[in-house]
Design a protein that fits this description.
Structural class: alpha/beta
Number of domains: 1
Helix content: 40-55%
CATH topology: Rossmann fold
Distance between the termini: 53 Å
Strand content: 5-15%
Radius of gyration: 21 Å
Number of helices: 9
CATH superfamily: NAD(P)-binding Rossmann-like Domain
Order of helices and strands: EHEHEHEHEHEHHEEHH
């Protein structure tokens, strides 16, 4: 545990969804190290059939911290409500909500089933909404609160991960909206787009291994200029440090932002903005749009996903 004079979150209460492994576990452990009392929310079990939430909560207690496990599904309003109630009953309140939980399904858009689509959207987007729904009344009453949502670079465009990308960009819009809606109550809401090596379920890993080579052949998609970070550097502990810092008073003026974090790097993502605009008296019709030409609006007309390598189209 950190020295008492260095513990930044003493007296705070936090919920971490998906806290049983990977990034979520590291966030829960560091929050506790910094003095927060933590509800570790996770529905999963390890191969030995032990509940991951129980194991992480015990790790925190064994290290001298305070923690309670929750295995309610936050993809339902009932489960999310019980998770928030557990924090209040166990520790007397709630100050921090870290939304990290979510499942993935790596399939082409015409092969993903409705059940798989709903599972991904519910676990990420609905689960984030549900916990926020029940945390916000507490935050409003006390005129303070921190929400950290977990987005992904996949939301910027990730072939064969349409459901995951859609969920993550939904979270991005939710984050921006809540920052503007809740800031007047002293509540801040930020999002991270982390890059870290975290385990996946066997079904996801099978699909991931099948489709990722083709996805890489289609272009750099969401990685952009930051594709040089080596996998060995992408430790979830590196992500947790930024998340926990955003929960401290040092970040009390930070609201509505999206952060990049991977390896040795942290960064700030730009927000979408209108980059070009054409005006025509009386408005636009099909003929005038034809005459103007797409090059006047779009600077790069290359569709790299179709044209870069014809061999990948099937």
């Amino acid at each position: 545990m950190a020295r008492a004079d260095k513990r930044r979150l003493v007296g705070k209460v936090a919920i971490v969804s998906g806290g049983g492994r990977g990034i979520g576990r590291c966030e829960a452990m560091l929050l506790a190290e910094q003095g927060a009392k933590v509800v570790v929310s996770d529905i999963g079990k390890d191969p030995d059939r032990k509940r991951r939430a129980d194991k992480v909560a015990k790790e925190i207690r064994d290290a001298g911290g305070e923690a309670q496990p929750s295995t309610d599904s936050i993809s339902t309003l009932e489960g999310a409500n019980r998770t928030v109630e557990l924090a209040v009953k166990s520790f007397g309140g709630l100050d921090i909500l870290v939304n990290n939980a979510g499942l993935r399904a790596a399939y082409p858009i015409d092969e993903i089933t409705e059940e798989q689509w709903n599972l991904v959207l519910d676990s990420h987007l609905k689960g984030t909404y549900a916990l926020i729904k029940y945390a916000v009344p507490i935050f409003k009453r006390q005129r303070s609160g921190v929400i950290i949502n977990t987005g992904s670079e996949s939301g910027l465009g990730h072939p064969f991960n349409s459901a995951y990308a859609a969920a993550k960009e939904g979270i991005a819009g939710l984050t921006r909206s809540l920052a503007r809606e809740l800031g007047r109550f002293g509540i801040r809401c930020n999002m991270i787009r982390p890059r870290a090596a975290t385990p996946g379920g066997p079904e996801f890993m099978e699909m991931y291994q099948k489709w990722m080579p083709m996805a890489q052949a289609l272009g750099p998609y969401w990685l952009g200029e930051r594709g040089h970070v080596r996998s060995g550097e992408m430790k979830p502990e590196r992500v947790a440090a930024l998340v926990v810092w955003l929960c401290t008073d040092a970040a009390r003026e930070v609201n509505g932002q999206g952060f990049y974090v991977a390896g040795d790097e942290v960064g700030l993502w730009s927000e979408p903005q209108l980059v070009r605009c054409l005006t025509r008296p009386g408005g636009w019709d099909l003929d005038s749009l034809d005459q103007s030409g797409p090059e006047n609006l779009i600077s790069d007309l290359t569709n790299r996903f179709l044209m870069k390598d014809r061999a990948t189209k099937d």
